[in-house]
């Protein structure tokens, strides 16, 4: 693991519990418009994990974008998996599907995600045009390092 990856991992270990507490508090509105808590089980350990992630939702579909340098998404490698998501202090159930490997489909999902949440483009090194849309050449360059987890919700918020 490189020095940058170690620093990034340490930052996540410090910030994730803080963000989780905020999202579960009456102050959740500060972040819950585009940050949710994803609950899932480890694919080999079976342990329950909860991680705060930026998200985009369209109807019954929720997308989470990440880089290969993170680890949480690896739990969805083998097959679709049941998950729950806390959005604005409400919990919904769904099934997660992983999009990994550079493809037109992955790029389409990333483009849609960044069009809805352009602030995340900088995190992944993707340049935006004057209309805050991903520049295709920039997206093509970075997409091999990205993954997308798509969750189809199976129920409405409780």
Second rung of CATH, namely the architecture: Roll
| Shape category | globular
> Which strand-content bin applies to the residues?
25-35%
**Total DSSP helices:** 4
* CATH domain class: Mainly Beta
Query: Using DSSP, what is the number of strands?
Result: 7
- What topology, given as strand order, has the largest sheet? 2-1-5-6-7-4-3
What is the terminal separation in angstroms? Answer: 40 Å
What percentage of residues falls in helices of 4 or more residues?
A: 25-40%
Explained architecture:
The radius of gyration is 15 Å and the shape is globular. 24% of the residues are buried. A hairpin with a 2-residue loop joins β3 and β4 (61-67). The protein has a seven-stranded antiparallel beta sheet with strand order 2-1-5-6-7-4-3. The protein is an alpha+beta fold. The model has no long low-confidence stretch (mean pLDDT 85). The protein has a single domain, classed as Electron Transport, Fmn-binding Protein, Chain A (Pnp Oxidase, Chain A). The chain has helices at residues 3-23, 104-116, 120-124, 136-142; strands spanning 35-41, 48-54, 56-58, 61-67, 81-87, 90-100, 146-153. The protein contains four helices and seven strands.
List keywords for this structure.
158 residues, alpha+beta, 4 helices
Compose a concise summary of this entry:
By secondary structure, the protein is α+β, with helices and mostly antiparallel strands. 29% of the residues lie in helices and 32% in strands.
């Amino acid at each position: 693991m490189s020095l940058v990856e170690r620093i990034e991992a340490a930052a996540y270990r410090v910030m994730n519990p803080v963000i989780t507490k905020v999202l579960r508090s009456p102050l959740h509105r500060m972040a819950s418009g585009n940050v949710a808590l994803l609950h899932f089980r480890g694919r080999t350990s079976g342990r329950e994990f909860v991680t705060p992630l930026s998200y985009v939702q369209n109807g019954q579909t929720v997308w989470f974008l990440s880089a290969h340098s993170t680890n949480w998404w690896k739990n969805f490698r083998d097959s679709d998996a049941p998950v729950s998501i806390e959005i604005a202090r409400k919990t919904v159930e769904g099934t997660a599907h992983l999009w990994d490997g550079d493809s037109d489909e992955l790029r389409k999902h990333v483009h849609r995600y960044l069009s809805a949440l352009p602030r995340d483009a900088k995190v992944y090194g993707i340049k935006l045009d004057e209309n805050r849309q991903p520049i295709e050449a920039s997206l093509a360059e970075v997409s091999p390092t990205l993954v997308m987890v798509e969750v189809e919700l199976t129920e409405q918020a409780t």
